[in-house]
Structures are given as structure tokens and as C-alpha cells.
Amino acid sequence: MSYDDVEIEDMEWNDEIQAFTYPCPCGDLFQITKAELKIGEDIARCPSCSLYITVVYNPEDFQEDQPPQTQNLGLAKGASAVKVA
Amino acid sequence: MDIGKCRVREVWSWGAGTHGQLACGTLIDALTPQRVEALSDAALIVDIACGGAHGIAVFECGDVATWGRGQAGALGHGDETTITVPRFISSLQGIRISHAAAGWNHSAFVTDNGALYTCGDGTFGQLGHGHTESRLVPGRVEHLSSERINMVACGMRHTLALAVTQGSVCTSIVYAFGFNKRGQLGIQMKTNGSESKNKWCFSCPQRVDSLDMHGVVSVSANGDHSAALTRMGDLFLWGRGYNDGPDSQQPHLSHSGLKLIQVSLGWRHGLALAENKVVFAWGNNVCGQLGISRVSNNSERRAQEVNVAHKSIEQYTREREGKDGAAEKSQRQISGVDFQKVETQGMRVSWISAGSEHSAAVLEDGRIMMWGWAEHGQLGLGSLEDQEVPHMVTLASTRLSSGFFSATHDQHASANYVKTKVYCGSGYTFVVS
Ligand SMILES: [Zn+2]
């Protein structure tokens, strides 16, 4: 079961591991790469435990190569955000 | 330092350890309690704070040591280095710290004369310095320099500070800063008015004015949750909703029906200790973090719930008769909060702590019970299996006498004796005994 649903705008871009991250309750980070988002993946996993989160984002925002700033994703309002099943 | 025979204490840690957060010089998890040599038999510890993956120890002399993940400067040593053994924060030497709090990647320190210092991740304004930069060494929160701060609490991306004015009438003010998307600051405004990604971030301390007249005596925070406890033993909750309930942008009175004396929040659950030494829990129970058996004692628990509900009505009536606005206050009862009695096998509890997804209680005789999420060994039971009811943890103490006898002896020997306390971080646990 997904630990949580997290909007992409609430995740932080981590240059070191080249992934969007969000805190995991184990102390490590849930992670998802732009390449994964591009193919419609919506599960961000933690490398240290069994937990994962569902990332809420607009897949169209990742179809073109874009800079990794989340504010460019146009997800200010929930209406444009869709959950990829 | 001569600590004297009666003041010897021991510090233990277990659980997630891959960022050095167990302070034992290692980068591995520990499934059973291990003695933290660097903090045992040392100077008196008056407070410990455990965050996402870093820890803080406050010593009686006012010094502070930190360890664990150094990302964004959370340890306050001037860099982002992760360290596996406690190191004193040199920039705070000469400043007497009496209390500390640890968030996901930020730290807060209160001095004995009421100043607040913060360091670490400031991305969401959670350091309170009026910007969203991170700080590698602690800096004083100047916006609160005219207040006497006596307590601070750190959530994942926000901070609560309690200012107390001593006078003929004891008044208190709660300040909040950082991320507010889930209402965790408890303030009127949800956004700061900008249209950017930063619109949820308040980097200057905001007054939680709806709590002004309630006599708040303690604040707590974790994840996106916030709480305040009043002198009367009433509990206010705000921030992210529990059990998928709606978020609460304003503090809401949550009736337990009993006078509460301590509160500790996890990422999806909360614990409260009542004056009668019984522990209540609410929120998500997927990992067993509420400590209530799902199969046994259903009738007993129902009876307890009825009892609580009954007392709530009594209290409600008392308040309605007592002062105007109480009825409205009661209607604002936060949804998704259903207080349930933790099954401590009938034993009285003196202290509680909630980790992200696990829970701990210290019994009056000094023994420790743990329950909830165990994937990293954070229950200290030598197992990775979640526990839905409290289990006793064994500390292999090197002391000749232990537990209650020792505590009694020490209380006579030193007024400074700290009773056994447990502190839960995200996926790990510390004990000072
Ligand atoms: Zn994890």
C-alpha cells in the first residue's frame, strides 16, 4: 500500500542523485527520476525500506525535456494534477 | 568531569542507523539497544531531540552536541558532514542551551534566558530568519528577540515556538513558521500571497493568535502535524488531517475527556499521556503504532470509548456553562481524531514519545515499552516485525542496581536526576536512564 500521495511540487530536486525526493519515515528519501516520470511511472521508492509513495503529477509536464524546477510544472492548482494509475 | 557515583547515567539507541543517527560510531541499523558510550557516564543530559536522521543532546552545563546526517547544516558544525559520534557545537559555547528540537533536517535550540537559535534546512522558512536559505551554524531568530521563548518543536518542514510571560497571570504565545500547505502553522492565512512555489512558506514567525488566551504550556510537532497542550490539560491539534480527514488550518480542541499532561506526535498518529498515567493514541494504525489490539478486548475498549465520550460531554457541559464560546469551540472538534486507550497491560506510564511510525512509553518503574513500525529495528526487540501492542524492551544495563531502586536512590542523591526518558526519531529510538 502506498504510504502517501505526494504532489510533485512538494518534492525537492536533488542534484546529487538526480531525482525528485520526499522524506521517508525511515529517515531516508523517496526518490523518482525524470526519466521515470517521462514514461508515466508514479511510484517513488525509498532505497532503505519497503515503503513507497504515489507521486501526483501531470505527465505532459515531462514529455519534453524541461529544467528540473518544480515551479515550472504548472501544478499550483490540484485541478491540473492527475494521478497516473 | 566528576559526575559522582549517584549521577551515573546510561544512554541507549537502536533502530535506523545508516546516517550515523545512533551516535555509536557506525552506519548500520541496530535491532536491539546498544549503549551509547559517548553519552553514557558523561555530563548530565537534560534533553535529547531526535529528528529525521540526526540527534541533539543538551547537557546540564548548557552545552549541546549533535550527530547524524549533516545535510543542509542540521548539525550546526559549519558544514554538511555526517558524523557518527556526538560533537559539541562550538559556535554555541558560552551560550547556555536548556532545550532543543529536531525536524527532518533542521534543528532549534532554546537558551536559558529565552533566545531561540536555529540551523539546517531553511528551504521552507522553517528556520524563522525571514528567508529560505539554509544555515550551517545556529543563528538567533531575531524576529523573536523581544520574546522569552521557553519551548520549541520541529515538524518535517515547520517549527513552533512557545513564548511565556511570567506575571500575575501566566500568558503564553505560540509562534509558527515554515511550510503551511497542510495548515500546520495554525494561522489565518494559508499562503503568503505570492504565486510561486514558495507561497506556502512563512519564513518569519507568525503568531498563532487563536491560542492566545488558552494558557498553552507545551507545543509539539512532527510530519505536517502540530499540537499544543494547555495548563488545564486540554489538547489543541492542527495541520494535516488524521486518517485522511480534512486538514485543519486552525487549532481545534480535541476532547479526550481527561486532563492531559504530555503530547507527542508522529507522522500519521499521536500519543497523549493523561494525568491518571494512561496513554491515549489516535490516527493511523497501519503499523500498529496506536498500541491497541485489533482482535482482543473489543468490548473493553468500547467501554473505554463510551467512558471517554461520556466524560467529553461532561467537560463540554462544564465549558458551556463556564464561558461563552465554549460551544463553538467544541463544535470545532477535529475530525479523524478518535482517542483510544493504549494497552500498557494496566501499568502506569510516566513519559511517552512518538516516532514517525512507532511509539514508546516509559512506565513509572522505569521500564520501557515499544510498539508500531519495526522495519529498521526501531522497537529494540531484535525483530523486524511490527507490533500492534506494547512490548517491553530489555536494556542490558551495566549498573549493579537498575530500574526503580536506582531511580529512588538517585532522586535522594541529586535533585538534578533525570528520570528515564525515551525519545523517538523518524526510524530510531534513544533512551536516557
Ligand atoms: Zn524509507
TrEMBL record, chain A:
Molecular function via GO: metal ion binding
Ranges where the DPH-type MB domain occurs: 2-58
GO biological-process terms attached to the record: protein histidyl modification to diphthamide
Stored SUPFAM superfamilies: CSL zinc finger
Keyword terms: Iron, Metal-binding
Domain of life where this protein originates: Eukaryota
Region (Disordered): 63-85
One Pfam family named in its UniProt record: Zn_ribbon_CSL
InterPro entries associated with the record: DPH3/4-like, DPH_MB_dom, DPH_MB_sf
Pathway: Protein modification; peptidyl-diphthamide biosynthesis
Catalysed reactions, as listed in the record: 2 [3Fe-4S](0)-[protein] + 2 Fe(2+)-[Dph3] + NADH = 2 [4Fe-4S](1+)-[protein] + 2 [Dph3] + NAD(+) + H(+); [3Fe-4S](1+)-[protein] + Fe(2+)-[Dph3] = [3Fe-4S](0)-[protein] + Fe(3+)-[Dph3]
PROSITE patterns assigned to the protein according to its UniProt record, in alphabetical order: DPH_MB
Annotated coiled-coil segments of the chain: none
Family annotation (Gene3D superfamilies): DPH Zinc finger (3.10.660.10)
Family from the record: Belongs to the DPH3 family.
Name this polypeptide is given: Diphthamide biosynthesis protein 3
TrEMBL record, chain B:
Ranges occupied by RCC repeats: 9-61, 62-113, 114-165, 172-232, 366-433
Gene Ontology CC annotation, any one: cytoplasm
Superkingdom of the organism of origin: Eukaryota
Keyword Oxidoreductase: no
Domain RCC1-like, residue spans: 10-398
InterPro entries hit by this protein: RCC1-like_dom, RCC1/BLIP-II, Reg_chr_condens, Ub-ligase/GTPase-reg
Keywords: Repeat
Cross-referenced Pfam families: WD40_RLD (PF25390)
Name of this protein: RCC1-like domain-containing protein
Organism: Physcomitrium patens (Spreading-leaved earth moss)
Lineage, highest ranks first: Eukaryota, Viridiplantae, Streptophyta, Embryophyta, Bryophyta
